[in-house]
């Protein structure tokens, strides 16, 4: 039986959703973040040395990294579904967005979270003005412009068909869901009509709703 090692409020929600779309039976082992640090518990290191989620075990295979897991799942269980035909322009777009999600979209979102943490850090009162200035400088000087650039680019790309790889829903849309949900949660991505419409479409999918029911809390802390 395939097992998903699922951390609350994490990228592993995408894996549950993909499995529900595929109709694959699976087990879940749930892990909770530390309430103080919001990090994954040490128990995850027994599954994968980095101690991060998602991790999937399938027979003798242990797989980490969202994109690699999704590609494995559609290749192993998809029977041609959720991936464009090889050799087509849609397949090139599919490959691009599968990598773009974590390689390009997530870094500025993580920096936005870091800036928010810095601004809200508990420090002596005489240091706080400096800390807030550093956080504001990071936000306005780099993070904000980068997020605006990426969200504008993504919105324009979605304008064509509403999906990321051709005119049909694919695993690339699952992969791109997390940065856009995170962006809507804390960076204003939903201000773009095409991004807002994309999120509404995926949230309405029955498989997405089933994944939420199985995975539990998903408020997108990180």
From TrEMBL:
Transmembrane segments: none
Residues covered by the GST N-terminal domain: 1-81
GO cellular component annotations of the record: cytoplasm
EC number, as in UniProt: 2.5.1.18
A Pfam family matched in the record: GST_C
Catalytic reaction annotation: RX + glutathione = an S-substituted glutathione + a halide anion + H(+)
Entries under InterPro entries matching the protein: Glutathione-S-Trfase_C_sf (IPR036282), Glutathione_S-Trfase (IPR040079), Glutathione_S-Trfase_N (IPR004045), GST_C (IPR004046), Thioredoxin-like_sf (IPR036249)
PROSITE patterns in alphabetical order: GST_NTER
Enzyme class, broadest EC rank: transferase
Gene Ontology MF terms in the entry: glutathione transferase activity; peroxidase activity
UniProt keyword list: Transferase
PANTHER family registered for this protein in UniProt: GLUTATHIONE S-TRANSFERASE 1 (PTHR44051:SF9), GLUTATHIONE S-TRANSFERASE-RELATED (PTHR44051)
Similarity section: Belongs to the GST superfamily.
Protein name in the entry: glutathione transferase
Organism whose genome encodes this protein: Paraburkholderia tropica
């Amino acid at each position: 039986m395939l097992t998903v090692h699922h951390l609350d409020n994490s990228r592993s929600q995408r894996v549950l959703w993909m499995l529900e779309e595929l109709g694959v039976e699976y087990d879940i082992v749930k892990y909770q973040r530390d309430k103080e640090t919001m990090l994954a518990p040490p128990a995850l290191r027994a599954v994968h040395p980095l101690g991060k989620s998602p991790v999937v075990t399938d027979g003798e295979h242990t797989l980490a990294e969202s994109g690699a897991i999704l590609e494995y799942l559609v290749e192993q269980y998809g029977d041609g579904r959720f991936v464009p035909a090889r050799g087509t322009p849609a397949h090139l777009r599919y490959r691009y967005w599968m990598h773009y999600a974590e390689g390009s979209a997530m870094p500025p979102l993580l920096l936005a979270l870091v800036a928010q943490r810095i601004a809200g850090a508990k420090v002596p009162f005489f240091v706080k003005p400096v800390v807030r200035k550093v956080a504001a400088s990071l936000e306005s000087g780099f993070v904000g412009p980068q997020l605006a650039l990426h969200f504008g680019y993504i919105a324009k790309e979605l304008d064509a068909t509403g999906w990321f790889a051709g005119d049909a829903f694919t695993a690339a849309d699952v992969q791109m869901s997390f940065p856009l949900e995170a962006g809507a949660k804390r960076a204003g991505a939903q201000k773009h009509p095409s991004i807002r419409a994309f999120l509404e479409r995926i949230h309405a999918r029955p498989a997405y709703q089933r994944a939420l029911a199985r995975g539990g809390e998903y408020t997108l802390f990180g």
